[in-house]
Amino acid sequence: MLFKNIETERLILRPVTEEDIQDFFELDSNPNVHKYLGNKPVQSIEASEAMVASILKQYKTNGIGRLALTEKSSTKFIGWAGLKYEDNLRKDFNYFDLGYRLKEQFWGKGFATEAALASLNYGFKDLKLKEIGAAAHINHIASNTILSKIGMQATGTFEHEGDSCYWYEMTNPYE
Question: Which of 59, 61, 68 is nearest to 24 (CA)?
Answer without folding.
Answer: 68
